[in-house]
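User: My instructor asked us to take a sequence, write out its structure as tokens, and then describe one feature of it. I'm not sure where to start. Here is the sequence I was given:
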Amino acid sequence: METPEVPAATYERRVVRSGAEHHYLRVRLELPDGGARPSVAQFKQLVVSALRELHGEVGAALPVDVLTYEEKTLSAILRVISSGLVKLWSALTLLGFYQNRRCAFRVLQTSPFLLALSGNSRELVLD
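Assistant: Let's start with the prediction itself. The structure tokens for your sequence are:
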């Protein structure tokens, strides 16, 4: 009695790129020596200057919006077109000075959906 031959499994790789028009980043500016905290306009100018420093005038022309900014914690939610996400992220990461003082941007969260930044499961406290 012969056993029927089982066909070999076939695999198909599918890559789905996000169709989202924008990406959102939750960032925090760290100023180790304290001092003056930037206003929302100064914060936006710092982001644009970081883009200009790394990517030139083309990078500075990248449309970036500051949706929220908390001066107390120096954190913000930024919106950028999806094609400019890597440029913005790299420019913020490599920025090292603000008004001749050391500084660093930390990208805390990123998502193509703004709602995803509304909470952080790592900081969730259940009662």
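For the description part of your assignment, you could build on this observation: DSSP finds two helices and six strands in the chain. Try explaining in your own words what that tells you about the chain.
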